[in-house]
Amino acid sequence: MIKKFITILLGVLLLSLAWFLFIKEYDYQFRFQANHLPAMVQQELKKIESYSIFDSEPTVSYQQTEGYEEIKQTLQFGDQKLELLWELENQADSATSVSVNVASGKKIQNRLAILNPFSESVYIDSLENSFLKFGKELLKKQANYKVQVVDSIVYSPALDCICKPAEDIKVENKAMQMVRDIGYLEDFQISHKLKLTGYPFVKIQAWDQEAGTIDYDFCFPLNLAQDIRPNTFIEFQQFPATTSLKAIFNGNYRSSDLAWHQLLSEAKKRDLKTSNLPLEIFWNNPKTGGEALSWKAEIFMPVEPGN
After folding, report:
1. Which of 13, 75, 218, 302 is deepest in the core (most CB within 10 A)?
2. Residue 153 and residue 128 share a domain
3. Which of left, alpha, beta for 240 (phi over 0: left; psi -120 to 50: alpha)?
4. Same domain for 194 and 84?
5. β-pair type (95-104, 28-35)
């Protein structure tokens, strides 16, 4: 009986060892907590190469998302690479539990080092330090913005406006392009002595999430029933009110797109269809400076009931 038990135990151990060395997809898992909900955390993970957490700067050679709960990445360090699977789980109080599963090209070598009880694994220690550092840096960055989703479905405002269109702009360059274009709108407003009827806004007209690019109209709301005509750079637009999910964003407007993803996640949770084409209304003028957390933007994501 004892011999049989030992034989079975050895068989289980050998099978477990073979699974760990040759079959298991990832070498190791690290965990940390992040602020905000998974949809926003995922967007920060897509920019991991911008965080100085590794000894050398990687490039993201492959990236694939699965909803807002998962993201797969391949980080390339010269001829070496890391395969990452991030799993995001919503916790209470708008926090996210982040698990990162890691595999490298030297699978057998690294896994033998993990199993060796008589030596420290430089590989694991280095990765652990990198991802702990990333978790701390992420929390610092997240402290610079806030997003609050309004519970009820609302109507976006109907707007008549003059607009400067922009096409094929990287999402992260939206604010920079607005700075370049605002002069056209200000010159038109001043030269025609026009009075604004609200805050400046951006209406997204196309959003390629895979490429990370957008087409949009940057607009000043005003009364179009005046003796004015569009010119080479300025278009006249009328945007009707639409049923929408709404969020309040506080922070630098360069990061306001984080609220778009939070609204898309909310729409999916509520089984609402959406055009994925948000409207952003900016209450503050960045030229006047001030603490970015005091800047406010209203974000409207058009929705309609699902099936």
Report:
1. 218
2. no
3. beta
4. no
5. antiparallel
Residue written as token pair 């109080």: 93
Query: Would you say 169 and 213 are in contact if contact means Cβ atoms under 8 Å apart?
Result: yes
**DSSP-derived secondary structure letter, 158:** P
* Per-residue pLDDT of the chain in tens (307 residues, 90 and over written 9): 666 556 554 554 544 444 444 445 577 888 898 988 899 999 988 888 888 888 777 888 778 887 899 999 888 877 778 888 999 998 876 789 999 988 875 555 555 555 555 555 566 778 888 888 888 988 998 999 999 999 899 999 999 999 999 999 999 999 999 999 999 999 999 999 999 999 999 999 999 998 899 999 999 999 987 888 888 899 999 999 999 999 999 999 999 999 999 999 999 999 999 999 999 999 998 888 788 999 999 999 999 875 4
Record the pTM: 0.84
Domain count, the chain: 2
Task: Examine the domain organization and report whether 184 and 37 are in the same domain.
Answer: no
The answer as to whether 189 is a domain residue is: yes
Residues 6+ apart with CB under 8 A from 40: 142, 147, 258, 259, 261, 262
